Please model this.
Amino acid sequence: MTQFGDTAPNARYTVVLGLSEPAQMGMFETELARHGRFEILNKAPNAVLTVDLASQLQPDVIILSDISQGTPGRHVLPDLARLAPHAKVIITVAEHEAIVVGSETGAHVIHDYDLDALRTALDSTAEMLDHPEAPPERRQQVERRVEQDWTKVFSERRVHVRRKEDAEG
Model:
C-alpha cells in the first residue's frame, strides 16, 4: 500500500473521449499517449454516444467537448454523473463559455485546443486518481490547485492576447 504523498508512477487510468472534431481528437490522443498514464478505451463522435460508452465502460476519466453534434457536452454532464459516478470529467469549451460551464457543473473546464491547459488537467486528474484515500482537506487542496492552475493558464492567456493586441495596434 502506498503512503499518502507517494506517487503511483505505474498506475494507468482509462479514458473515454467524446470529441467531434478530428483535429481535436488527434491532439488529445497524442497528448494522452505522451502523458503515459492514460489508456483510451473508446472514442465517440458526440456527447450522447459518449454517455453510452461511459455507462458501459465505466472509465476513470471522460474527456468531452461542449461543441458536439446535436446535444452540447454540458447538457449530458448530469447523465454522466449518474451513469459513471466515479469518472473525472474534463470538458473543453470556447473561451467565453468557460466561466458559465465551470460554475454550472462539477466538471473540470479547459479551453478548446489549449494544450497547456490539457496537460495541467491530465497531471492534476492523475494526482487526484492516485490518491483516492486522501483526507478530505487534501482532496480540497488538490481540487483548489487544479482550479488555480487553470485560472493561472486562462489569466496568462488573456495577458498574452492583450500584449499581442497592444503590439499590433
